[in-house]
Amino acid sequence: MGLSNTARAQPEPDPDTAAPAARGRGRPRKRPEERDDGNRRQAVLRAAARLFRQQGFAATSTRDIAAAAGMQSGSPFYHFESKHALLGAVMLEGMERALAAQARAMQRAEDDGEPIDERAALRVLVRNHLEVLLGPESDFIPVMLYEWRSLSEAQRRDINALRRDYEAVWNPVLEALHAQGLLRGDVRLARLMIFGALNWAVQWFDPARRATLDALTDAALDLFLQERA
Q1: Alpha-helix residue ranges (DSSP H) falling in 56-152
Q2: Which range has the worst mean pLDDT, 29-38, 67-76, 83-92?
Q3: How far apart are CA 88 and CA 152, in angstroms?
Q4: Are the beta carbons of 206 and 216 closer than 8 angstroms?
């Protein structure tokens, strides 16, 4: 939500990204962005995610992002060719983080020693999903919910591939619960309704005034699942 048009002016020369002067013999000294490229790229992604969530994609300029990341105005273009490319990268980063967090949460549940049933597995998935949406550094996925229409078709395909991987972990759990009579209705529709309900929490959840994520998880399971006969 910054520059609303896709064309952009050529960024002015930036001391952070300018090539070093010619040197004599020996390996040339690395530029600052080459020394900590990964950290600087992450700083741009975090700043962009926060501003895209707070202000919207169209209302956020690359200058805003650079300032929030502690960089000069042209520096984000060292890492991303355009603001639209940066938006896609924010969403990809969000899905990659969500996948990694989900895998860790399921692994921790398995490492506890006792096998977990499907209801307990769904609780782990729901609790982790709420953490991804509402926990620390949770700006990435809400941007995906708000700004999906701003992506190109190619960007959507890349993100959808990760989203399918994320949802694939849920499918066998929901199917088993359905087979046990604990989840009514069509499993695919139930999954969509569950994600819709959980994702909407980004609109109203206030950690200072609302329930904890654990309490939200318990409420969600009470809403989605039937009691055992």
Answers
A1: 62-68, 76-79, 83-111, 118-134, 140-147
A2: 29-38
A3: 9
A4: no
Q: List CB contacts of 6: < 8 A, sequence separation 6 or more.
A: 82, 84
Element (H, E) at 39: helix 37-55
Supply the angle between the helices 187-199 and 118-134 in degrees, to the nearest 10: 40
The answer to whether 169 touches 106, Cβ cutoff 8 Å, is yes
| Dist CA 136 CA 156 (whole Å) | 25
The tokens for 192 are 């969509």
For the chain, report the end-to-end CA distance as a whole number of angstroms: 51
Task: Determine contact, residues 1/52, Cβ cutoff 8 Å.
Answer: yes
Asked if residue 94 lies in contact with residue 49, where contact means CB atoms within 8 angstroms, the answer is: yes
**What is the C-alpha to C-alpha distance for residues 112 and 16, in angstroms, rounded to an integer?**
48
The answer to whether 182 and 226 are in contact (CB under 8 A) is yes
Q: Which amino acid is at 80?
A: F
Q: What is the pLDDT of residues 41-62, one digit of tens each?
A: 898 999 999 999 999 999 999 8
Domains present along the chain, CATH in parentheses: 1-81 (1.10.10.60), 83-224 (1.10.357.10)
| pTM > 0.85 | no
As a whole number of angstroms, the distance between CA 50 and CA 44 comes to 10
- Rounded Cα gap, residues 23 and 195, in angstroms: 57
Amino acid identity, position 202: V
